[in-house]
Amino acid sequence: MHYYHVLSSITIFIMLLQSIKMEKVTLFDFTTMKNVENWMEISDTVRSVGMSKAVLVLQKTEQFQRGIFFNLLNPQPNGAAFAGVRIPITWNLTDYQSIEMICRGQGSNDHYKFVLRHNGESSNEDVTYECFFNAPMSNENFSSIVCSLSDFKPYYRGRELPDAQPLNLANITMFGLQAYGGVYSNIKQKGVSALEIEIISAIKEITIVDMSTGTVVPVLGVFKLYVDIHILNNHLQRICIHLIDPTQLYLELSDLVFQYHSRGNDMIASTTSNVQTLFDFTRTDQVGNWIECSDTIKTTGMSKAVFIIQKTQLIQRAIFFTLFNPRPNKTGFAAVRCDTNFDLSDYHYIIIKCRGQGINFKYKMLLRHKGLEKSAVVFGQIFTAPENEFGTIKLPLADFKPYYRGQELLQDENPLDTTSITSIGLKVDMSPYLPENQAGVAALEIDWIKAIK
Ligand SMILES: *[C@@H]1O[C@H](CO)[C@@H](O)[C@H](O)[C@H]1NC(C)=O
Ligand SMILES: *[C@@H]1O[C@H](CO)[C@@H](O)[C@H](O)[C@H]1NC(C)=O
Ligand SMILES: *[C@@H]1O[C@H](CO)[C@@H](O)[C@H](O)[C@H]1NC(C)=O
Ligand SMILES: *[C@@H]1O[C@H](CO)[C@@H](O)[C@H](O)[C@H]1NC(C)=O
User: Fold this and answer.
1) Smallest CA separation from ligand 2 atom 12, residue
2) What residue numbers bound the domain in which 144 lies?
3) Buried (b) or exposed (e) across 203-230, using 16+ Cβ within 10 A?
4) How far is CA 204 from the centre of its chain?
5) Do 198 and 298 share a domain, yes or no?
6) Residue minimizing CA distance to atom 2 of ligand 3
7) In testing the pocket of ligand 4, which one of 62, 63, 300 has its CB within 8 Å of the most ligand atoms?
8) Residues in domain NADH:ubiquinone oxidoreductase intermediate-associated protein (predicted)?
């Protein structure tokens, strides 16, 4: 007769935990990595109507380094969308059982997946092996999420293909991360998110032999375990270990079925006497000259900004991703700027066609003119990005106010010299005149920036 001996089971459980020595091999260590050059975007923009965007960047501060996977899901009306990044690799994970990632999520999406490919397959026609997980949402703590390698199921264009050949663990040749819209699934997500990543590892299973039957009991150290111990007359009879897998989430994703609502007529970019195009991101990849200038230039800075081109098969634009991480005293900023040489003396407004998503909609545009040191006066103006549809924001050049280290100066004594604008910047912060802004992730999609009379 079996009976359950509470005291003995606790003792044995502790012994078991001590004996579990998990072996991990680091696959990607974003805390020390030099660059992320080999990571490439693969988003729904490979399809004709896709509108999403993903970018993986390193955030290097004086205190830490991490990877940030920014993603912006702009789904089709049926929810179809995906935004991902991937990297070619050569891994033999035959002896490993799971993939662990130390990460945290912020923003509107928490459903992600790992995507693997094998045997050098890389075309869109090849099967992918996918495992779904929920990012731990927090702006404080990093946590571990684990996907068992046996949970990677074959998918073809979002549809599970149970008959496809199994994942060849000995020859994994592509690793990817993806945020998805959730077409035909109960989960629907959209908007902007950031997944901050420290380390991705492969975990090797340590086996424990069930004493009574001689069979191997798999134990993954990072899973929660329920242990049932059966003891008869003070002799261990059987140990049952149940794994609680937090990632058991399978979604029926069907092939992306797109509907498309044609866009309204855009104002055609041109240089006429009434309009000067400063940046037309819909036509040219003019983001190379934009550089990040976030608070991480200072010791205590923790924010991140990325300015990147999104190319879909229909349109092109720039996206300004920000992960704003202010200090407790509300200082800090996520910003980019571009060195320019514009004579705007004939114009009265800067106009920007854009749309905002995420936690912050208030941005500051910053101008500098010739002869100013980088640390000197800067001319700023707040604007609120339209939320749902793209809109055109008109910023009067006369309303750019001079600031020095956050303090407003007298405009009469510090006039903006519009004949020679040498720098244009975009910034998210929480300064007194931007009280609504909060910590978190946001995206500003920009079609163009122009000057008009
Ligand atoms: C992969 O690793 C396993 C276990 O270490 C080894 O037996 C096998 O030969 C390796 N395969 C390749 C293709 O390297
Ligand atoms: C992995 O697959 C590719 C493509 O089939 C092949 O060229 C390569 O030799 C394979 N590598 C291993 C270790 O089997
Ligand atoms: C972060 O972890 C600490 C300590 O475990 C906990 O007190 C706090 O509630 C956690 N914060 C969040 C946002 O989960
Ligand atoms: C805000 O806090 C940071 C450190 O967390 C400090 O370096 C900075 O001087 C503070 N700024 C103000 C205006 O209090």
Assistant:
1) 171
2) 3-203
3) bbbeeeebeeeeeebebbbebeeebebb
4) 28
5) no
6) 141
7) 300
8) 28-191, 279-446
Task: Mark which of 203, 236, 254 sits at the end of a domain.
Answer: 203
**Is 215 inside a domain boundary?**
no
Nearest atom within ligand 4 for CA of residue 327 = 5
pTM beyond 0.85, yes or no: no
Q: What is the CATH number of the domain that holds 29?
A: 2.60.120.260
User: What is the distance in A from the centroid of ligand 1 to the CA of 389?
Assistant: 53
Cα(194) to centroid(ligand 4), Å? 25
CA 247 to ligand 2 centroid distance, Å: 30
Q: How many domains does the chain have?
A: 2
Are 45 and 188 part of one and the same domain?
yes
Per-residue pLDDT tens, the chain, 453 aa: give them.
344 444 444 444 444 444 455 688 999 999 999 999 999 999 999 888 899 999 999 999 988 999 999 999 999 998 999 999 999 999 999 999 999 999 999 999 999 999 999 999 988 888 999 999 999 999 999 999 999 999 999 998 878 999 999 999 999 999 999 999 988 788 899 999 999 999 999 998 666 555 566 665 554 433 334 445 555 556 665 555 544 333 322 222 222 222 222 222 333 333 456 889 999 999 888 788 899 999 998 889 999 999 999 988 888 999 999 999 999 999 999 999 999 999 999 999 999 999 999 999 999 999 999 987 767 899 999 999 999 899 999 999 999 999 988 788 998 889 999 999 999 999 999 987 788 999 999 999 999 999 999
* CA-nearest residue, atom 14 of ligand 2: 171
Question: Can you tell me which residue has the tokens 């004086």?
Answer: 62
CB 288 within 8 A of CB 277: no
Chain centroid to CA 245: 24
The strand pair at 206-209 and 40-41 is best described as unpaired
Nearest Cα residue to atom 5 of ligand 4:
327
